[in-house]
Design brief:
The chain is an all-alpha fold. α7 crosses α8. The radius of gyration is 19 Å and the shape is elongated. 24% of the residues are buried.
């Protein structure tokens, strides 16, 4: 039986991620989360008034972490190398895409907080897409990417590579290296 106790917010957010990835939005509720954390539901309500507030806060904090990691990437010798670094980061944070798929289920009318979190998430998504597009355009100028391929197509391919199933459970850095190699060289033997 769950007991009333204080909890660490990081534990709450980690359990939120695990439960969302396991059960999805529809299967996520405070009772399951309380059971997972071995706390009373009322303890969770001390932090968040509803599941959409918790989920959007988790998503917002995850996106902040991604953006901080992007800012921490060492300056690269070329934009093409920066694209490679970004792809590796995307693979490390592939759960972001699972969360983005849940966005349409979130009810922003439940509170001002949810609407605010969703606005912030949208802003980060636009920033990320803009950053990716800038490096794609610079790579074209450097002669690393064909100029006849629309930048939005290249950006879309980059964003969607995280949806490729990694059945062999190859480590994220090796997986992104293999994907980048295919993007750079194709699959044909030369």
């Amino acid at each position: 039986m769950a007991r009333q106790r204080k909890m660490v917010i990081e534990d709450l957010l980690k359990a939120t991620e695990e439960l969302l990835l396991e059960k999805g939005y529809e299967g996520f509720h405070f009772k399951a989360l309380a059971d997972k954390l071995d706390v009373a539901r009322s303890t969770i309500y001390e932090y968040y008034s509803n599941k959409d507030e918790l989920i959007t806060d988790y998503m917002r904090l995850l996106m902040i972490e991604v953006m901080e990691r992007i800012e921490a990437i060492s300056p690269q010798t070329s934009s093409f190398n920066m694209l490679k670094e970004l792809l590796t980061l995307f693979m490390e944070y592939s759960q972001v895409y699972d969360m983005i798929k849940m966005r349409s289920s979130l009810n922003q009318s439940t509170s001002h907080t949810v609407a605010s979190h969703l606005d912030e998430l949208d802003r980060y998504s636009r920033e990320l897409f803009q950053l990716l597009t800038i490096h794609i355009e610079k790579s074209k100028d450097e002669g690393s990417i064909r100029k006849d391929v629309p930048s939005s197509l290249v950006a879309g391919i980059f964003f969607n590579t995280v949806l490729i199933p990694n059945y062999e459970k190859i480590p994220a850095d090796q997986w992104s290296e293999a994907i980048f190699s295919i993007l750079e060289n194709g699959i044909a033997v030369k």
